[in-house]
């Protein structure tokens, strides 16, 4: 048995039966990372010593007959946007280079309590701002299915780590599609939970009203296992939902007879790649064959999703990132003279320090979004932009609520195209922003969404399918995705670009 080729569910069984140990399992994945990461660049930091120590503790507990959870001994990769006391948390930014948090994020605390073995921190778009993972200050991430293509973003490192067999489980964050889109482009499964279902304490904020942490894995079954460990109320997060956590695996095997799936005709218009459309339509047919019914629904304000998102998210980012000024937090300019264009005169040495620190610490995309957000919040423009975007957000939420009166979930493509070439969209921010066309509505409405592979193009690139459901419908989303994966084998495919 090659451990790195096994799914998390298979590894869990092997660990429980004593067919392998947590140390053997961790070592296999750590060795795989060592052999592969220089090519993919999925991990920013790897904690071999800490991972093996955690694995040894699990093995010792198992040998003593202590009760252990289903995830005990399973390796997991954590997106570098979550605070960890034993590893740096940089958000893939020079602004936080070398930052060592004084506490663990709530999700990290739960992972440790569940007995998982944290391998390291994964690469991402800087401060989670991007759709291709090309915005990292520490180098872009490559898609394991085609090393010349993007893995998607901003959780591209987490998605690529799973696709490249460097980790069986990973944690991502999703502000406008940052779990689902890279999952779709890398041929894995990713779940964006309902806003508040998973605590955001210890998540370095991009857009506080949109950010949500979620699981990434090979299959829906494994996402259910991981969500079980990280979901739950956290008194330390004022937005955390104080509602019971269901057993996410309980209904996975229930048949789909009677499930009503919505199909949005507008999602199949101009710009959708023909091969993507073909596989998505085949997925609807597979669901029909399994007993579900397909119904046409409308989301009238969906076309306003991207502009609404790119007013709200940058506005909140402008506020959240204001603290990184070189004085209170973040990188500080060392006083070295600079000839950077656009920065020539200052009112005081303090203002110069602020300006130069932020100019050096932030990358181009983060600067772009800060400027856009600051402009939208500025006097004379707040009502015309930010306030109006909030009103449209309410309309988008109402569209989903109305649609869910007639269907149980809504299905469709995750992205309009398969993975695109690295560098293809970097000079056109609008084209990059449109990558999120089908995913931002989920975040604006605060509902759940899951992405899973539904086919491959003639060029052997994964195609993703998305299901969206009402608030707290994660059990249904996981069931529907799992039943599809029981009827197909797309999620079992392995890339040949990085042979084990």
Summarize this structure briefly.
It is built from 15 helices and eleven strands. The protein has 500 residues and is of the alpha/beta class. Helix 9 packs across helix 12 (386-403).
Count of helix runs:
15
Topology, number of strands: 11
Mean pLDDT: 96
Sketch the topology as an H/E string, one letter per element. Answer: HHEHEHEHEHEEHEHEHHHHEHHEEH
The geometry reads as globular
Per DSSP, what share of the residues sits in E-state strands of 2 or more residues?
Answer: 5-15%
The residue fraction in helices comes out at 25-40%
**The CATH topology of the domain at 3-258 and 409-492 is what?**
Amidase signature (AS) enzymes
CATH architecture identity of the domain at 3-258 and 409-492: Alpha-Beta Complex
Strand order of the largest sheet: 1-3-2-4-6-5-10-11-9-7-8
What structural category do the secondary elements indicate? alpha/beta
Sheet with the most strands, sense and barrel status: 11 strands, mixed
What would CATH call the homologous superfamily of the domain at 3-258 and 409-492?
Amidase signature (AS) domain
Rounded to the nearest angstrom, the radius of gyration is 22 Å
């Amino acid at each position: 048995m090659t451990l790195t080729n096994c799914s998390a569910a298979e590894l869990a069984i092997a660990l429980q039966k004593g067919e392998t140990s947590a140390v053997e399992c961790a070592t296999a994945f750590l060795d795989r990372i060592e052999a592969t990461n220089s090519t993919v660049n999925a991990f920013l930091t790897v904690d071999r010593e800490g991972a093996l120590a955690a694995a040894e503790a699990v093995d010792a507990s198992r040998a003593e007959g202590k009760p252990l959870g289903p995830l005990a001994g399973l390796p997991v990769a954590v997106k570098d946007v979550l605070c960890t006391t034993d590893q740096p948390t940089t958000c893939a930014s020079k602004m936080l280079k070398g930052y060592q948090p004084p506490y663990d994020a709530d999700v990290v605390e739960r992972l440790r309590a569940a007995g998982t073995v944290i391998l390291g921190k994964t690469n991402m778009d800087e401060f989670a701002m991007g759709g291709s993972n090309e915005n990292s200050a520490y180098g872009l991430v490559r898609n394991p299915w085609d090393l010349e293509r993007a893995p998607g973003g901003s959780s591209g490192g987490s998605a690529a780590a799973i696709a490249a067999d460097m980790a069986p489980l990973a944690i991502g964050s999703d502000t406008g599609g940052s779990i689902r889109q890279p999952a779709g482009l890398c041929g894995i499964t990713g779940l964006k939970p309902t806003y508040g279902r998973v605590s955001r304490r210890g998540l370095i904020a991009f857009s506080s009203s949109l950010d949500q942490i979620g699981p990434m894995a090979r299959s829906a079954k494994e996402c259910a296992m991981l969500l079980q460990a990280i979901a739950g109320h956290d008194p330390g997060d004022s937005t955390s939902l104080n509602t019971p956590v269901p057993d996410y695996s309980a209904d996975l095997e229930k048949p789909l007879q009677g499930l009503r799936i919505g199909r949005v005709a507008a999602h199949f218009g101009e710009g959708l790649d023909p091969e993507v459309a073909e596989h998505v339509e085949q997925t609807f047919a597979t669901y029909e064959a399994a007993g579900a019914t397909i119904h046409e629904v409308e989301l009238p304000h969906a076309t306003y999703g991207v502009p609404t998102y790119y007013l709200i998210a940058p506005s909140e980012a402008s506020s959240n990132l204001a603290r990184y000024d070189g004085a209170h937090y973040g990188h500080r300019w060392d006083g070295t003279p600079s000839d950077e264009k656009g920065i020539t005169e200052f009112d005081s040495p303090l203002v110069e320090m602020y300006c130069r620190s932020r100019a050096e610490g932030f990358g181009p995309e983060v600067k772009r979004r800060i400027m856009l957000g600051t402009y939208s919040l500025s006097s004379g423009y707040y009502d015309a932009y930010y306030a109006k975007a909030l009103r449209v957000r309410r309309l988008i939420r109402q569209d989903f609520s109305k649609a869910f009166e007639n269907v149980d979930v809504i299905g469709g493509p995750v992205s309009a195209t398969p993975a695109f070439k690295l560098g293809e969209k970097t000079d056109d921010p609008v084209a990059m922003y449109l990558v999120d066309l089908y995913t931002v509505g989920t975040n604006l409405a605060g509902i759940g969404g899951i992405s899973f592979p539904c086919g491959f193009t003639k060029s052997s690139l994964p195609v993703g399918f998305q299901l969206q459901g009402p608030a707290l419908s994660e059990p249904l989303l996981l069931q529907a995705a799992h039943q599809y994966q029981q009827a197909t084998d797309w999620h079992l495919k392995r890339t040949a670009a990085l042979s084990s």
